[in-house]
Amino acid sequence: MRNKLKAKICYASGDIYGGGAFMIFSLLFMNFLVLVEGLPVVATTIIIFIGRLWDAVTDPIMGRISDRTRSKFGRRRIYFLIGIIPVYLSFVMLFFSFGIQNITAKIIYYIISYMFFGTVFSIVMVPYNAILSDMTSDYNERTAFTTIRMIFSGAAALISAVIPSIIIKSIGNEHNGPEQIPGYIVMALIFGAVFGLCWLVVFWGTKEREVLPAAEKVSFASWLSIFSNKAYKNFLGIFLPFQIGVDLILALFIFYIDIVVLQYQNYELVVGTLLVCSMLLMVAQGKLAEKKGKAFPLYIGIPVWILTTIVFIWIDSSVPVIALCIMAALIAVGSSAGNLSTWSMLTDIYDIDEICTGKRREGLYAGMTTFLRKFASGIAVLLIGFGLQAMGFDQNEYSILKASASNFDPASYAQSNIVMGIKWMFILIPLLLLIICLFFAVKNKVSKRCFDAVLKGINEFRTSGSISALGAQETEDILIVTGLEKDKLWGA
What we know:
This protein has helices at 2-12, 14-36, 41-68, 77-82, 84-94, 103-135, 139-172, 181-205, 220-225, 230-260, 267-292, 296-311, 321-357, 362-390, 395-403, 410-413, 417-442, 448-464, 472-482. The chain is mainly α. α3 (41-68) packs parallel to α6.
């Protein structure tokens, strides 16, 4: 029992970086480039888009590299060790431009910095997303591992949403602007060190299977072949809309709090409420998933989030902060359900792929999934940038307007194109994405019973070359999950 708890904690430590660095990037990077470094908002979204386009190269390739790696430290764990120092350096570079003043030079620098950050993120996170299937094959135990991972991720996200802002304001300035640069530098140095060291813990406490399949050659066709997996395509229908919705809400959140409801001073309280509730709800969501299936939390959480999003139609600058905190807590019901369900579902896809093809390709799936998430989010953020520009948003004019408190009229300001545009982007885009997510969640066929049948089928193929010894119900469950005829299984 103690060894299992240690393994869960060490494994979960990887999402201190995954959840923490992602939260800081999502909440602060766009704001930092636009309002602190003074880059045009469209240039900022182009930087993010190019960085995520670069992931089109790094994520799938890293997945295949980790599948083919053979070392004394394993095919996944070796990259946790390699990534420690690059994780630290790449994070610091996101928030430190070495005194560059020229706008064009800054844009080029931050493109390179974000590409470096994305590459390092792939080096550690792609093997990390693939390693759980090596650590356990039990359906509920994978859910338990993922639950602890999501709690660590939620705790890291909470700390990363609140503490960096406090450091930035304390060392830099209370006002959102260039005076905060020293605070951003100190914040990046501290959190970069924490993110780097967490991978030493993951390396130390995780394990991999000793008997590995033969390494296969990398080909473009193998990347495309995963889309013939029926369960994976349905998983993407759940995963991508949910994750893109989360990415967009986080990218717009600081703008929404600062510009739409004019409560920048309460930013930490509102986002902290969301993240604390997400973390606290994770245990209950995990128990629910173990009893009812991994998709079941989505059936409760996503509708709650959808209804809460609709309520934002009537929210303006007159709303009390307590109301914003209540709505943040309700959003947490959906975000905790989505994070737990989607990441725990992914590990089961690897086994479904094996019974379809006879191959173990965790790295390929992890790499492609990470790429699709980043690429789609990059497109969405890019469109938001062009949308803000079309509405007339100018970071310099906005800073001057907010600084002129004596001439600032919240009532008239609330009717401006900028405020209305950000408000409706914050409402309508996530609403559409959550509806799509729920639609595919209802179509999910991977229950615990079906998954156990898949594992039995894999063992039968390995020992006898067929699944003829399985019962009729088990065979039917395998065919339902895979969408294949019996004679097409195992790469036949």
